[in-house]
Amino acid sequence: MNNRFEKIENEKFIEIFNISESKGEICRKLNLPDNGASRQYVNKMIKELNLDIQTLKNNHFNKFHIKKICPVCGKEFFIKRYERDKVCCSYSCANTYFRSGENNGMYKSSNLTGKTSYITICFRHHPHKCCVCEEEKIVAVHHYDGNHNNNEISNLIPLCPTHHCYIHSKYKDEIQEQVDEYRNKFLCSNSF
After folding, report:
1. Is 38:50 a contact under the CB 8 Å cutoff?
2. How many CB atoms lie within 10 A of CB 160?
3. What is the per-residue DSSP string for 120-153?
């Protein structure tokens, strides 16, 4: 059994050690049985070659984690491989990232980029009142075709929060006719 261990060169052992994540894996890569004698040999070689066990732990960690940089604070952080969608290092940075700036649907940018909030677009062309009840204090904007990327003037309908909830509920039929009528009048008066 000692003959099998003597055939392994130090350079080969170091090379395998540096890419392994456990002592059992080192045994398998050296074609040694994963038993007590092989483990003793691996321990002896690690000690003789003055290798750092932390390398194995780091290799294991790196196998299951990805290093990313937070776009808000610039801090490096690690995510598990199955969390690939995670963008920021913390909830605080995520709130900053997604609730402000271009990643927020309500973002109003300068004229340099050309992007404008759909709410701003709507109230440039529609009166600031609900098309059903004429509420003027609080007015939301409804996307007529349901596509939130379609910010055409004819697709944006001003509704109060109550009627906006109606249009997205089982009570849609109670106000749909009035919304359709408003949209048709708007399309007739503003030929595009």
Report:
1. no
2. 20
3. HHHHHHS-SS-TTT---SS-EEEETTS-TT---G
Distance, first Cα to last Cα, the chain: 88
Q: Which pLDDT does position 113 carry in this prediction?
A: 47
d(CA 56, CA 73): 30
d(CA 122, CA 93): 31
Exposure class string for 84-96: b at 16+ Cβ within 10 A, else e: eeeebbeeebbeb
CA nearest to 77, candidates 65, 60, 61: 65
Identify residue 154 by its one-letter amino acid code: S
CB-side neighbour CA atoms (13 Å) of 29: 16
Query: HSE on the CB side for 135, CA within 13 Å?
Result: 15
**5 against 67, higher pLDDT:** 67
Gap between the Cα atoms of 135 and 2, Å rounded: 90
Tens digits of residue pLDDT in 155-172: 999 999 999 999 999 989
pTM: 0.42
Integer angstrom CA distances of residue 35 from 15, 43, 147, 165: 21, 12, 62, 67
